[in-house]
Each structure stands twice: as C-alpha cells, then as structure tokens.
Specification:
Nucleotidyltransferase, domain 5, globular
Length: 203
Amino acid sequence: MLKSCYSPQGIEAGCDEAGRGCLAGPVYAAAVILPSDYDHVWLNDSKKLTQRKREFMRYEIEKNALSWAVAFAGNDEIDELNILRASVLAMHRALDKLTVKTDRILVDGNRFFSYKTIAHICLIKGDTIYKSIAAASILAKVYRDEHMQQLHLLNSNYSWHRNKGYPTEEHRRAIERYGITQYHRKSFLLRKRQLSLPFNLNK
C-alpha cells in the first residue's frame, strides 16, 4: 500500500523524472499534488505498470490531482550541466508550473537541489512508497515516451518508438551504422568501448 503523505501537516508535491539513463532525448520530470484521500488500485511506480495502465493513469491523475505539471531539460542542457543537474532542473521547472502552493517536496532518489525556500525530502525508491511520487513517475514516463515517439518520426533509424532512447543493442547498433543525431547526448558513452584490437600485433 502506498502512503498518502510524509506528514499530515501541509501540502506535499511528489517529484520524479524519466529518461535519466537514455542516450538520446530530453529528461522529463513531473510534479504532482494529490488530494489526501486519493487512491487508485493501479497507482504505482511507472516501471511496474504496463503501457496501457500508465496511459490510463495519466488521465486519472490529471483529472484528480489538485495540481500537476510536466517539464523537461533537453539533451543539450544535459551535456552542458550533467544529467543530475539537468534532472533537477526539469523538476524545478515542473514545480514552477504548479498552481497550488506546496509546503514540502517529496523527491524520488537521493539527490536534489533546494527549490526556493521549500523543504524537500529525498527518498530512495520513493515511487514505491508515496502516492504523489508514483503519480509523478507515471506522468514523466508517459510524456517522455510520447516525445520519443515524435522524435522517431524524424529519426526512424534508431527505433526510438521501441527503445525510447535507452541504450539497447538495437539503439547502439544504429549509432554505429548511422552516427549520432542532434538529439543524442554527446556527453554519454554512445558507442561501446573497443574491447579487442582490430589486428594481431604478433604478425
């Protein structure tokens, strides 16, 4: 059973990101404030849900949340800032868009940079503990997947409609064959390291 809140005092916003480990595309983040009595049998960490359930829950969350927002940091920002800072930047941008004032921020993971003067609590696997973080994980995932579907239409060689930019064998083979695009994260290891010499030194 997911918990409704960290503390019954004040309003809490849950934050999570999607796409941190990808080779291409932006990192997305969501911030969600749920009613204290909100519950749904499918509300859970987005990774534990099927695509169909995530898409259903996206509309459930948007309909029932007191406030919700989604934002992103692009691949160029990731290269400039590093993935941690870009992920937090995306979370800050989502928090900026909330229409309800929050007293506390619950963040999935173990790193965050202070947002204004609002208290924050970092929670490892928080998306499996608190409803608001689970809801944020679903929105971030669904919105990013939709974005990668659109990028696939522009760059079909990389099969982003399937791998969503993650470092699958299919994606890495496409990089080796076609090179990188303007949407790839150039600060990431995009090609596999050379593990063997291409010729015999003894000859």
